[in-house]
Amino acid sequence: MQQIKDVIRSIFTTGDNPRRIAFAVLIGVFFGFSPLNGLHTMLALFVAVVFRLNKVAVLCGVFLNTPWIVVLFYNFSTWFGIQLIGVLSGMVLPNIGLNDFLNSEFWFCFLSQRRLPIPAFLGSFVLYTILSLASYVLTLSLLRKHVPWKLETP
Fold first, then answer.
1. pTM reported for the whole predicted model
2. What is the largest distance, in Å, between two alpha-carbon atoms of the chain?
C-alpha cells in the first residue's frame, strides 16, 4: 500500500497541472494498448521525454495493459476490425480450441492467415485511440475531483 501512495505522490509533486498529467496518462494508454508490444514502454518514455511529460503517469498508462487483458483485447480488436472492413477474400477463420496449439495443422492454418493483420491493426487502432481518449477524460475528472489543488487554466 505504501508503494501505491509513493507512486501517487510522485505523480503529483511534479508541478504539472491536471491536464498535463491526464495527457501523460493518455500517451501511456495509447502506446500501452498499441500492437507494438516490446516497444511500447520505450516509445512512451521517448514521447514523455520529448514533450516533458510526467514519466510516472505515462508508465501508469502504459502498464494498464496487463498480460491478463492483452489476449482479450487483441482478440476483440481483431474481431472488431473484421466487423469494420469485413472478412477479406480468401481468409478463413478457423474454429480452434486449446488442444489445437499442439497440432501441426493448427500452425499451418495460423501461418496461412497472412491477411489477418490488416483488420487486427485497424481494430486495435480504433479501440486504443478510444481507450486513450477515455483515459484522458477519466483521469482529468478524477484529478479535478480528488486532488486538492487550484486548477490552472492554459
1. 0.72
2. 62
